[in-house]
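Posting for a labmate who doesn't have an account.
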Amino acid sequence: MTKKLENNLQKRIETLVADNSMKSRETFFKRLAYKVYAYHDSDAESMGVIKDFTQFENVLYGRVDTLYNAIEIRPQRLVAIKGSQNQYALRYVASAYDQFVAEIKTAVANGKIRNAPFFQNMEVKQSYLPVRNAHRAILGAASSRFANFYIRSGRLKEIKNFNQFLIKFIDFLYEFAELNSLSSPAFLLSKSSDISTTGLVLDLELKDFSQDKDKFAFIRSPYFEYYKKCAQRYGFYVDKNYPYRLVANLSSPAMKQFMSEDGYPESNLRSAFYMDFSPAHRNDLEIFKNLAFTLYRSIIAARPDIHEVFQIDEDLFTRIEQREFYLSSDLEKNYPDEYWLDFYVRLRNIEASLDFAPQQVDRIINNSIEIKKIVDKDRAMDYINKVFIDVPAQEGSLNDAQNRQYFKEVEEKPFSDYKEYLAKTVKLKR
């Protein structure tokens, strides 16, 4: 591709994607990302080692990049943690933990720590949890619910071919998405996922999160202050709600040093995310294609024939019809990317807290198809994801809390309710 052609394509894309508020939009999301990752003070003591990962944007730590895109770890970037059984983390996290636990062991050997089983037998009990297992489970639950409904209601006879199936299944997914997160970004940022999927977490105990008695006893132990300072020294947060949990502090000088030693660009968190994580949305079209195709094939396998009873005069007859067999090549031919882009935009609009009007949805669909034609599918998916980033509207976020407070205090409210206000104001910021 010539430089001139590349520039022309870029300008065309920007025309489709951008608006007059693009600069303010980028600033808006960068400020939000700062709330997640920023190292607020160079003074370690004032910065604090204790972090509440249930509060505001902290819940998204390690699950969004610096532009608030949902991300998922590249499994090949994980390494085994020494001294643990089948536990994995990112390489620099494992390196930091090696030195952390070495210091703890030295303190035990020197008698600095005594009669403390937690420190004397320290090992990582749990670390990385594959997020895709949980995502596949919710998609599987949706498929099962669809199939069970049509079987139990006797309506499976309405599905004679793949086209009939797909129309009904897509409609079902839209309905299911009103209460469940189905797209990868929505799922990864939902309560069904958490910080344990990031490769940044090391659980040194497996205890009930709700057992405050145990946590208080640990916090009040004579060695907790040393534990906290040691964690900080090697670049870890201590989880406020689960103090046995260490979380890599990506903004700390110590963790940055470990990252630098592993070949990461210094002071460039965005590049680090690029190396270790991938955008969650990029493979969604293939995920939903496979979901539909696999479910239809399973229906054929279980119920290949359609039995219809009909009556002529006083006699009953049974007509047996075979369901259409469908090949993956048929799927690609009959339902190209344009079809799935249309579906995906409508799905994301249902999932998002900010509902776009039908004409806006149509425009987003047309833009995504145009971008796919001009560049490729990945850029089209990037555009859709950018449109539907709904983190600022997420209940419990700091932005949400500030918006709610403002809406509460305004005497003459320009909108009928908070949801309408939030939808309008956040859209304006985009």
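Reply:
Got it, the structure tokens are right above this. The longest strand covers residues 305-312.
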